[in-house]
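Reviewers of the previous submission asked for a worked example of the structure-prediction workflow described in the proposal, so we include one complete record here. The input consisted solely of the amino acid sequence. No template or homolog information was supplied to the procedure at any stage.
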Amino acid sequence: MIYTAQKLLTFETFLAQYGNNPRYELADGELVDMEPTGPHETVSGKLATQIGITITIEKLPWFIPRTCLIRPFTDAATARRPDIVVLDETVLASEPLWEREPVITLGSSIKLVVEVVSTNWETDYARKVEEYALLGIPEYWIVDYRGLGGVAFIGKPKQPTFTVCQLIGEDYIQQQFRLGQPIISPLLRSLQFRLDDILPRS
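From that input alone, the workflow returned the following structure tokens.
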């Protein structure tokens, strides 16, 4: 759902008014309510745990911030708030805003972004794929645990789908995994889980 303000917000105004509110992100000056639900947060939390365990096992200098905004373009009023972000701590000194605000502007700081699909699935499958590729983020996961995405993205019959997008050159190569299949990540090679493992318990 998009709330259209009386006037479009600048990035700076959004940061001041909504920077600490995990419910909202900004797209071309428009405030976007991401409508998080309990099951959505369940999937995000379980997945963050799996990623965190793998980072620890592999002894990588990476971490998952509690809150983080990504500003993909300095010339546009857009601020993304992925469900999970994995940052490389060794390069954060180059981030111009990080010392004052949890805002990332450089793709080199980000190893992985994850979006757990909700009703605004079009953004996750289309626009964010372009934005994250342009930033140079090595891997982007789309977790469509309810099979909401369009047939063009997840096929027919629609079913729960986990998409791993790996950046090759300037574009993402996508590999999809269904229920019962081990997730394979080129970035996190020792990762061991299936989509089934992160679904909400019924």
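The helical segments are 11-18, 38-57, 121-135, 151-154. We consider this example representative of the routine output the project will generate in years two and three.
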